[in-house]
Amino acid sequence: MIHDPDAKPDPVAAPGQDRYGPGLAVFARAWAKAVTGTSYLPVTPAQLEEFLEGLTVRLVEALHEEPFSLRRGYQIGSDLVAAHIASAEGLGRTIEVIELRLLRDLGLSPAGPPTAASAGSPDATSGGPGSGGPGPGDDLRDRMARLLGTVAIGYARALRDRTLDEQESIRRAAMVAREQAEHALRESEARFRHQATHDPLTDLPNRALFAERLAGVFERDGRSGRRLGVCFVDLDGFKMVNDTLGHQAGDQLLVSVARNLRRGAGEHLVARMGGDEFVILVEDTTCTDDVLKVADAALAAVNEPYVVDGQELRVSASIGIVERPVAGTTPSDVMRAANITLHWAKSSGKSRWALFDPERNERELTRYALSSAMPAALERGEFCLDYQPLVSLCDGRLLGVEALVRWRHPQLGVLRPDRFIGLAEETGLIVRLGSWVLAEACRQARRWVGLSEKAPFVSVNLAVRQVRGPGLVKEVTGLLREHDLPPDRLQLEITESAMMNTADESVDNLRSLADLGVRIAIDDFGTGYSNLSYLRTLPVCELKVAGAFVEGLRAPATEPASVTDERILATLVSLAHTLDLTVTAEGVETATQADRLRAIGCDAAQGWHFGKPMPPSLVDALL
Amino acid sequence: MRRPDWAPETIDIDRPSAARMYDYFLGGSHNFAVDREAAQAMIAAVPEAPLIAQANRAFLRRSVRFLVEAGVRQFLDIGSGIPTVGNVHEIAQAMAPESTVVYVDIDPVAVGHSREILDGNERALAIRADIRDPDRILDHPDVLKLIDFGQPVALMIVAVLHYVRDEDRPTDLVGRLRSALAPGSYLALSQASGEGRSPAEWDEASAVYKRTDRPLHNRGRAEITQLFDGFELVEPGIVWVPEWRPDSSHAFEDVERAIYIGGVGRLR
């Protein structure tokens, strides 16, 4: 659209230019001067004059052409615009200079075409402006008027077209620029969004995007039977890599692991949750197997060897898996379950997956609930003791009772010790609970002493921590004094494991207690290490033989296994008697068992056959 | 969301553009009503504004002709604006068709229009960049496609630096560009000077340009001379642009009022 006379010089050298003599150049110079400054002309003044000389010749030719042609004027006007003489001022001055000077400067008689002789001397031709009346001069003036008219028309048309073209072109450029800017903005927004939703190290989706996608699974409607799966992946021993090879190596490893995981997980979303935790979302599973396949592939992908800093590394991962129907769960439930399951995988040996098990989870939740409720329950007095008779096998006399702790849970009912003693040991509450049991048992024992001369001793189980505790002797001494309880009415049952390390305080504790006259019994004898050496050195007075051996005595005496158990029991009894210890058999449930134990020479028995654990009021009746 | 730093600016055609006002002064129609309105306000302040723009454009034309005659075949035109009549590639390629030209402008509309004009011309292209980021220009793959910095280059910075603030250190910017040039390269530069005009005129003109996308920062002859540091000025040195190698006697009636001062220098 830009037409540059520099580039394509117009054919200005019209034939017969010389015919017009010096007047032509004079006129062209005047014309050039008139239009200079009306708009920017990308040519030298000399080029402009040359161009306008050419136009001048065409103007003169047009004036004399027979028949007169409108097209000539249009073309000249249009060529002016094309040469960038393209403004209202440019047109006005062009018309002015032509009208004023063309005929005069070129010595043109209004009557006819100029001759070389007449050029520059207007008076030399007839029919000059002064000749008067209609004639050829009038014709030339008519033609000049019409020519200028057509030049103006051609010029105005061309200028209008040019203006419209330029407007169109600049608008198009603005539109394109705006589109590009918008496109760039969209791209930058996309980039921004990518940054906001991806982990910069691995370029995996981050926690935010994962949460969004997981929430999407729950928002999307579809068949009510839709299911989903989540694999919560955690590297095993990643901290070691960081600590030994440095964080940079750790980061390199994470990048490689991320790449492998992404490949291993196929089309499923893999996100980095932070650190060495990753998660795989498996949408629209049909069954648990679908997720297990993904988990297997993920484990295999992680297990591939890595080269970090020139060293070959191998890592494994543990995965917690949840797979369930979408209905009836929530994103946070799913994630919590996956996280719990990951810990199961870790605690069962790492480098494996574990599948969420609602029952196990329920148990753990209950344990947790019990464990946290126990201290307050102890404060509120929710614990109580039942007592189980220990009966002499010789004469059926009631020798003692074993105190068994119960928890009257407001929601769960009466809980037996196997539900909560382990928890109390984990949390350390066992010491306070054990003290309470000891105190309550002593109180009760004293009550029975008051009721009967044949009052039973009360046997109390001590936890390992109690036995090792520095305050045990003082505690027991205090209780005996407080309740004025004869020491031989208190028996303390300790497990073999409490005796494992005879070097610590426990031995001294037990000696001191035995010196007081308190009975010491070994509980569950025969199931632990059954170290015989402490039986020599410790002030033990009784062995309680675990129910497992007694169980064998239920079977007919002809069965080999039963015979074996009976022989073990007989040996134990014989051993105990050698050491001057009595033997109590636990878990005696039938008369046959009682008879066989009596035949072996076992001193006492405990079990349903002789009485279930019972509240203290029922013990009263046995006195 | 706050627009991040690296997000591009949007196209605001409701604001007068210095590039399109310049086109209007040259007689072009590549402009919008807001541009014409601002240009007319400028003409009210400085009636010769169109003539001044034309004189500057003529300086560009004469300097390109001079440079082609001096043997330069590569042109880096920074701040090329709206490619109205008499563009560098038209002048240079008419004289030496092998000449290559890269146009650089900050105005996305100007660049868009340049690309339309240059469509099909394998030896000329336009990029969008800011003269205040010379490294981006020098490292731009499109620039490197057409310009071999091992050969002489004509660096055209015509009627641009008065849009750059002193804080942006125009001398350093030119210096950075110069450091990429091979010996025998040239700098053709002009910029608005504060000389030859009354403070009142300047205030009025500045007020007009404050409304545009490019406020004005004029500089004195000494400062403009400093921009040529490292270049050997060719005759006639740093002058009012109509005085630089004029090709006609009736160039500009009162050169003192031509606002633009400029010149051409050769890198030793």
From TrEMBL, chain A:
<feature type="domain" description="EAL">
    <location>
        <begin position="367"/>
        <end position="623"/>
    </location>
</feature>
<protein>
    <recommendedName>
        <fullName>GGDEF-domain containing protein</fullName>
    </recommendedName>
</protein>
<feature type="compositionally biased region" description="Low complexity">
    <location>
        <begin position="111"/>
        <end position="126"/>
    </location>
</feature>
<dbReference type="InterPro" id="IPR001633">
    <property type="entry name" value="EAL_dom"/>
</dbReference>
<dbReference type="InterPro" id="IPR043128">
    <property type="entry name" value="Rev_trsase/Diguanyl_cyclase"/>
</dbReference>
<dbReference type="Pfam" id="PF00563">
    <property type="entry name" value="EAL"/>
</dbReference>
<feature type="domain" description="GGDEF">
    <location>
        <begin position="226"/>
        <end position="358"/>
    </location>
</feature>
<dbReference type="InterPro" id="IPR035919">
    <property type="entry name" value="EAL_sf"/>
</dbReference>
<dbReference type="Pfam" id="PF00990">
    <property type="entry name" value="GGDEF"/>
</dbReference>
<feature type="compositionally biased region" description="Gly residues">
    <location>
        <begin position="127"/>
        <end position="136"/>
    </location>
</feature>
<dbReference type="InterPro" id="IPR052155">
    <property type="entry name" value="Biofilm_reg_signaling"/>
</dbReference>
<dbReference type="InterPro" id="IPR029787">
    <property type="entry name" value="Nucleotide_cyclase"/>
</dbReference>
<dbReference type="InterPro" id="IPR000160">
    <property type="entry name" value="GGDEF_dom"/>
</dbReference>
<feature type="region of interest" description="Disordered">
    <location>
        <begin position="111"/>
        <end position="141"/>
    </location>
</feature>
Automatic annotation (TrEMBL), chain B:
<dbReference type="Pfam" id="PF04672">
    <property type="entry name" value="Methyltransf_19"/>
</dbReference>
<dbReference type="InterPro" id="IPR006764">
    <property type="entry name" value="SAM_dep_MeTrfase_SAV2177_type"/>
</dbReference>
<dbReference type="InterPro" id="IPR029063">
    <property type="entry name" value="SAM-dependent_MTases_sf"/>
</dbReference>
<protein>
    <recommendedName>
        <fullName>S-adenosyl methyltransferase</fullName>
    </recommendedName>
</protein>
